[in-house]
């Protein structure tokens, strides 16, 4: 299980952090994420749904040292900077990335 974040949400959080620094706010470290975890299989199924294409996959063992669940608690950045992800749904994240890729590749 992993917490996925859209690149635009990531960039927006960085802009807010820079603006806070310009206002002489103290530096801080923030976790960024939606607070929701998705399995790799859920990501694959969402990608298939969004793109209409089959994604080949096979099951394998977890990598050594890889945590079973890694989900962000973005409460601190929400409280201090007012950041909330605009893309809070996995299918929306994938749809946006898919549209970008299609434009980039000319399809």
Automatic annotation (TrEMBL):
Pfam families: GDP_Man_Dehyd. It comes from the Bacteria. InterPro entries: NAD(P)-bd_dom (IPR016040), NAD(P)-bd_dom_sf (IPR036291). Residues 2-88 form the NAD(P)-binding domain. Coiled coil: none annotated. Keywords: Isomerase. One of its GO terms (molecular function) is isomerase activity. Belongs to the NAD(P)-dependent epimerase/dehydratase family. PANTHER family: UDP-GLUCOSE 4-EPIMERASE. This is UDP-glucose 4-epimerase.
């Amino acid at each position: 299980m992993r917490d996925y974040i859209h690149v635009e949400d990531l960039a927006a959080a960085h802009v807010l952090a820079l603006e806070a620094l310009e206002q002489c706010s103290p530096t801080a470290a923030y976790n960024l994420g939606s607070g929701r975890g998705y399995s790799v299989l859920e990501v694959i199924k969402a990608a298939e749904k969004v793109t209409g294409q089959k994604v080949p996959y096979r099951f394998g063992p977890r990598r050594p040292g890889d945590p079973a669940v890694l989900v962000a608690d973005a409460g601190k950045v929400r409280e201090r900077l007012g950041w909330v992800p605009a893309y809070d749904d996995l299918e929306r994240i994938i749809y946006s990335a898919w549209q970008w890729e299609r434009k980039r590749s000319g399809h």
